[in-house]
Amino acid sequence: MKPISPYYLFKKKRNILAVSIIDFIGRILFYPLRWIKPPVVIKNVLMIRLDHMGDVVSSTPAFREWKANYPASRLTVLTSAWGRQVLDWNPYIDEFIVMDHHWFRRDRKRWDSAEIKSVLEKLRRGEFDIGFSLRGDFREILLMFLAGVKYRVGYGVTGGGFLLNRELPYENTRHEVENNLRLIKEEGCTLSEVKTEVFVSDENMRQARKILEGGGIDFRKPVICFHMGAAYSSKQWPEERFLEVIRRLIEKRHFSAVLIGTREEETLARALAGNNAVVNLIGKTDIGLLCGVIKSCSLFVGNDSGPSHIAAASGVPVVVIASGTNNYEKWGVWTARKIVLRSIVPCMPCNYQICPKPRHLCMDNVSPDEVYNAIVKSIDQEIGVF
Q: Which candidate, 36, 227, 322, 347, has a CA 20 to 30 Å from the CA of 120?
């Protein structure tokens, strides 16, 4: 097999150097792994997606296409507790293994060796014929190796590719959906309709409609779901601009607004308290109910965040205000029903969680008028003129 020229996602040179040395030694010691042939009969398959909400949603086409090609196989997904909630009603997944570890948590939960041991035991009992590390994380690859997954496929973008039986060169210009699908395509899958999907239970849909109608929402008029928060301040459009847009939509177009978010974002809704056209659900839903709320709305408006991916995967048109923090063409929502508003600035993509500049230009340059007009345009196109 032709050796892979490593591409690493690290930004710091010392990390790249350290992993390069480990990989160089590992490729010599574990080179015989590349001689192992892929399984002829696949009964049990593992896919790992432990990172963030948008990444989990971007993996859903891989689940669907795998089961379309191997319907008799048993698909197990190793994911986080909240990843499980996003995927809970996905009909293509047969089993979940939950690992709520600190690796990709933004609250930096402490190392839990007991959880690692428990997950390894569950993986070993799965007797997996083939496993995919969709992210290409060294720790995920090591888990598969230690658990005895017979044939391991993935990218070595954080190192550890030498523990894979098939390591593919990572293409950083491709959308993450395409990179996920490329892994299973290399194992014989024929791809058909490529779309992200989030499935919502009937109970969560009923509950969402009940809550919204109880809050005074009139579904005969457009209902706009707003997510004003973001994982990092570098991805957040100014709160006062969101509020200005919401007030204008209510006063001029008589739209209704639904506010969603985490408990940490509750202060964002205080300025709209008492407005009868606004239903504030910030910090008041679990992920299953959140999916039902989003799917009940006519349009989603928000920053580049997990809920925007849920909306797009639920068939809801989206207006996304994207910062210059990352390459949005690679990591953004996978849908044609979108309007992406962003300002091109020299420092993008910066990968900063907090903007170090005196002015946060990539977000400050997006005006309330632009967002308001994009919302009106999307509603007029999707529903009709109101």
A: 36
Task: Residue 215: name the closest of 262, 282, 158, 266 by CA.
Answer: 282
- Under a CB-based contact definition with an 8 Å cutoff, are residues 167 and 154 in contact? yes
8 Å CB contact between 333 and 305:
no
Answer whether the bond into residue 349 is a cis peptide, omega within 30°: yes
How many C-alpha atoms does 156 have within 13 Å on its Cβ side? Answer: 26
Instruction: Give the rounded percent of residues in the chain with a pLDDT score beyond 90.
Output: 78
What domains are there in the chain, each with its CATH number? Answer: 13-185 (3.40.50.2000), 202-382 (3.40.50.2000)
Q: Is the dihedral of CA 241, 247, 251, 253 positive or negative?
A: positive
Question: Which of 333-364 are b and which e, b meaning 16 or more Cβ less than 10 Å from the residue's Cβ?
Answer: bbbeebbbbbbebeebebebeebeeeebbbbe
Share the mean pLDDT of the chain: 92
* 333 pLDDT higher than 70: yes
Q: Within 192-348, where are the H helices?
A: 202-214, 239-248, 287-296, 306-313, 328-331
- Rounded Cα distance between 103 and 33, Å, is 26
pLDDT (average), residues 335-358:
92
Residue 301 CA to residue 318 CA, distance in Å, equals 6
Residue 128 near residue 149, CB atoms below 8 Å: yes
Residue 46: name the closest of 91, 97, 105, 90 by CA: 97
Q: Which residue has the higher pLDDT, 317 or 383?
A: 317
Model confidence, pTM: 0.92
- pLDDT at position 109 is 57
Read off the tokens for 51. Answer: 């990172």
Quote the DSSP letter at residue 30.
Answer: T
pLDDT above 50 (res 298) = yes
Alpha carbon distance 302, 41 (integer Å): 45
What is the layout of strands, in order, in the sheet containing 278-280?
A: 278-280, 256-260, 223-227, 299-303, 318-321, 338-341
Q: How far apart are CA 118 and CA 141, in angstroms?
A: 17
The token duo for 245 is 């847009």
